[in-house]
């Protein structure tokens, strides 16, 4: 059996069953970077002169995303800016230091946004006071709101997040099985913005999680390995396991499933008559909301009680 790299005579370090390729370290790195390039081009994610705000959590996905986008930014003539949110979790603050180091190493401008400094409370405070929502749910809402508001107010027209193929396909399967068609329609490579909602892009959406992990190790990135103390087990883990079992039996099933959903299923359930004006404007902060007061402002009011 061939143990050499498909492209050269070096020993291979990995066999990608879904692509039927054995690759050495050098060509594996190139393979991943080229896959991101092709994803950006296939889904028209980034245009010349775009200003891209990259959400960095300190995990492998966001740090790999940051470095690849930085490396290809001149090639595609767009600018990148790093952004991480200090949520004020006392037992889990290392990710902020790691994100800052990543920004400095990549040589890009960045901001660390302090939830406590800007809004007067931390996620620890929220968890202690708000018992009606799970910490992960509240945390996700906070991050989405802050990212969008900052991007809008500072002239960014794209927000890039590190969702990988395994993340998205697990969510797609979950929403399909639960009949959540509205949720399914949001699991696309480019979630177009409108008004004060900034367009979100997912350049790693066709990259397998294992490939991102190996790429990160090869590059020697310092990434957060510990789980957040409020992590209670993602509901998608079960669906990830199902898809991984199928992938082992039938390599490339994940990418085929993903592309089938976005090219065939989502167009079938998108009528073209969606209410463009269905979103209201929060009467407190002025940002888009499905209610008169957005979830973030309701949380702020709750924290003042």
Describe it for me?
49% of the residues lie in helices and 12% in strands. The protein has 305 residues and is an alpha/beta fold. It has a single domain (32-270), classed as HUPs (Rossmann fold, 3-Layer(aba) Sandwich), CATH 3.40.50. It has a 6-stranded mixed β-sheet with strand order 5-4-3-6-8-7, sandwiched between helices. The mean pLDDT is 94.
| CATH topology tier name | Rossmann fold
Kindly report the average pLDDT value: 94
| Continuous helix count | 12
Strand content: 5-15%
| Biggest beta sheet attributes | 6 strands, mixed
CATH superfamily: HUPs
Number of strands: 10
Termini separation (Å)? 68 Å
Question: Mind sketching the topology for me?
Answer:
Blueprint: E1 14-16, E2 21-23, H1 25-42, E3 51-55, H2 60-76, E4 79-86, H3 94-106, E5 110-114, H4 115-119, H5 123-129, H6 135-153, E6 158-160, H7 165-178, H8 181-184, E7 190-191, E8 199-201, H9 209-219, H10 237-249, H11 253-269, E9 280-281, E10 288-289, H12 295-304
Parallel strand pairs: 3-4, 3-6, 4-5, 6-8
Antiparallel strand pairs: 1-2, 7-8, 9-10
Keywords:
Rossmann fold; 49% helix; globular; 6-stranded mixed β-sheet; single chain; 12 helices; alpha/beta; two-stranded antiparallel ribbon; 305 residues
Summarize the structure.
By secondary structure, this protein is an alpha/beta fold. The protein has a single domain, classed as Rossmann fold, CATH 3.40.50. The chain is 49% helix and 12% strand.
């Amino acid at each position: 059996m061939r143990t050499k790299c498909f492209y050269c005579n070096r020993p291979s370090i990995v066999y990608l069953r879904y692509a039927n390729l054995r690759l050495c370290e050098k060509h594996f790195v190139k393979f991943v970077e080229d896959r991101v390039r092709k994803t950006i081009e296939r889904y028209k994610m980034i245009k010349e002169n775009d200003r891209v705000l990259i959400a960095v959590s300190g995990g492998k996905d966001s740090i790999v995303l940051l470095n690849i986008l930085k490396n290809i930014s001149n090639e595609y003539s767009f600018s990148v800016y790093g952004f991480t949110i200090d949520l004020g979790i006392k037992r889990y603050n290392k990710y902020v230091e790691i994100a800052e180091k990543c920004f400095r190493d990549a040589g890009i401008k960045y901001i660390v946004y302090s939830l406590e400094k800007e809004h007067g409370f931390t996620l620890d405070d929220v968890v202690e006071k708000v018992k009606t929502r799970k910490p992960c749910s509240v945390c996700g809402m906070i991050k989405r709101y802050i990212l969008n508001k900052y991007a809008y107010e500072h002239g960014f027209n794209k927000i890039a997040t590190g969702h990988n193929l395994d993340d998205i396909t697990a969510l797609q399967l979950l929403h399909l099985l639960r009949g959540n068609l509205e949720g399914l329609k949001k699991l696309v490579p480019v979630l177009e913005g409108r008004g004060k909602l900034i367009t979100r892009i997912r350049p790693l959406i066709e990259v397998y999680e294992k490939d991102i992990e190996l790429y990160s190790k090869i590059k020697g990135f310092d990434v957060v390995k510990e789980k957040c103390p409020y992590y209670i087990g993602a509901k998608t883990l079960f669906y990830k396991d199902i898809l991984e079992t199928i992938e082992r039996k039938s390599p490339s099933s994940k990418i085929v499933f993903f592309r089938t959903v976005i090219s065939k299923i989502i167009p079938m359930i998108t009528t073209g008559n969606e209410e463009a004006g269905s979103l209201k404007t929060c009467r407190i902060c002025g940002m888009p909301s499905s209610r008169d007061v957005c979830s973030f402002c309701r949380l702020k009011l709750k924290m003042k009680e």
